[in-house]
Specification:
Aspartate Aminotransferase, domain 2, seven-stranded mixed beta sheet, 13 strands, globular, binds pyridoxal-5'-phosphate
Length: 388
Amino acid sequence: MTHRVPWSAQHKKLTANITYSLSNSFAEPLTSDELIKLSLERGDTDIVEQYQKHSLEYTPNGGSLDLREEIAKLYGPDIGSENIIVFPGGQVALQTAAMAVIGPDDHAIVFTPGYQSTQEAPLIAGGSVTRIELKPEEGWQIKPERVAAAVRPNTKYMVFNEPYNPAGTLMSAETQAALKKIAEDNDIIIMSDEVYRLLEHNESDRLPAMADFYDKGISVVTMSKPWGGCGITIGWLALQDLALKERITDMQYFATACASRASEIQGIMTLRSSAWILARNIKIIRDNVALLEKFIDKYGDLFEWVKPTAGAICYIKFTGPLTSAEFAEELAAAGIGIKPAWVFSEPGTLDSGYFRCGYGESIMPRALEALEEFVEDHKDEWREGTKS
Ligand SMILES: Cc1ncc(COP(=O)(O)O)c(C=O)c1O
């Protein structure tokens, strides 16, 4: 069995001692107190009482009904509480679904660079993958004709992540429809990683959830990103196909089959306060993107990007005389954390010069200032093309 190293775990070793983080991908977290306060302000004393008094027994496999009902409200009429499977986070949901669907004879289409689980969950499940490369000169957009050309007789699964980690870009409605058509024509299940959905910088860009859009589609979502609730550890899959749901729920028994009730109740509280939390988080994000844009404009000869339109992350190219791996190491030594290109691609892939920068948190402007100070200190030597 190959020892598969998590790319982002490797990266955490590099950023263990940083002061200024630009490497996170979540929106601003609340405290438990703030979440309770929001619930009480809504007059929801019942949920706060449940939080204090709940039993510490097992929760039902696949999630308690009250949480699944609350989640189902995010979708259209084809998705009810019976179409939701709750997991302790999005990553375990991605892997469990791949294990349920993919066997050694099956092939999946995935995209790179990207979050490791969206590329490798089918591989870990024992199948084979074709990685289709996304390119900055194409705005990081998926090209449906390349996807159609990658389909094989044994292609069972396609995994994409839109809004896209690491670039914060979003596919068009036409591309989403074209991918659905390819999947329908070839009997392929689509796993749509929508963990940054609801963080579109302009709400009018929001795409339909795959669970609503395609009867063989699966949406994966987590409290971690739009609501900043990483520590709640609640994610879910939404899907119309109940036979497929049963296969995934059966596979779930062999991993973490139920979340804690405290997490579930925090999940319910978060969803009931969703409008307030999302409005606050989008404001932080838009303000931070404006600062980043100023930074990119100021140092246009050293940095370039495809401006992000969704999520709390962007992929920036350092065009100076360091690879993104070297740039990340120098920044880490100065106490600043970013994610270099190797966190998003197979080992051995050429360093693209890109690094991921997160902008979801209200403390981000201070980290950007630290980055700017670092750039001011080194820009002349970089412009001359010499390493520090
Ligand atoms: C694209 C993508 N999918 C899934 C996840 C996993 O989310 P969770 O924190 O809920 O496990 C992440 C987390 O970074 C992510 O970026």
